[in-house]
Write a structure and sequence with these properties.
Elements lengths: L3 E3 L9 H14 L12 H8 L3 H13 L3 E4 L3 E4 L10 H10 L1 E2 H25 L2 H16 L5 H17 L3 H9 L1 H10 L5 H19 L3 H24 L18
Antiparallel strand pairs: 1-4, 2-3
Helix pairs in contact: 1-3, 1-4, 5-7, 5-10, 5-11, 6-7, 6-10, 7-8, 7-9, 10-11
Keywords: DNA-binding, Transcription, Transcription regulation
Protein name: Transcriptional regulator
Pfam families: FCD, GntR
Amino acid sequence: MTSRLVVIPTRRAHSNHAEVARSIGVDIIAGRYAEGVRLPGDAELTAMFGVSRPVLRESVKTLVAKGLLTTKARVGTVVRERGAWNMFDADVLAWHLDAGIDRRFLNDLAEIRLAVEPRAAALAAARRSEADIAELNRSMERMRREASDSVGFADGDLALHLAVANASGNLFMRSIGNVIEAALRASFLLSAPVETQDRETVLLWHQRIVDAIAGGDAEAATAAMAEVIHNGLRRHEGTAASPTAAPAIPAAAEPGEQS
């Protein structure tokens, strides 16, 4: 399934070579340059972007480092297969938001979350501090007072999941949460529980995560986190099945920002 759901504009690059890399990267991710395809030559690309050869070469080096391109003697610059892309690179994730999120992206995101977040919740139940519990409760309060389809609700949801990762005490889990923050925020915006019953279900299971962590119940925290992720994926599938256009969504916040 590759149908586009929504495009979420991200921040623009601050240098010529970074902007060229972003533009080519988005084109690759969107499929305008398919896997195995050779990019146009230097002369064509420098004319297309209005940059010098050194700027273009720096852009290509950036994309090679991120796994999107490879350079071969007597062949040129070729798009690599999707499996080689560094999906934990912040730019690559941002470019997916620029290119448009499809069901495959959402499924892949849900799968990595299921591999990490339930365990993070279990660790949080064993290691949480009073400050961690206070942050979890603040996140729940924000979700309760914000409209379900608002940016504030999605940001409250995101803050809760990042607080769980932080409470786990595991530096790798914290880092994963920070890296995929923009993708999580986009995911939460897309799966907004607009129906009253959906909203109550979302709030109930998020509260169960908080209660289980506060109560030191690792098993309950694991189960509640897994249910939250599965429930979100079910709402995504309903959105993907809809023939109507996705609503406009505000640009993602800068990494590390909480609105």
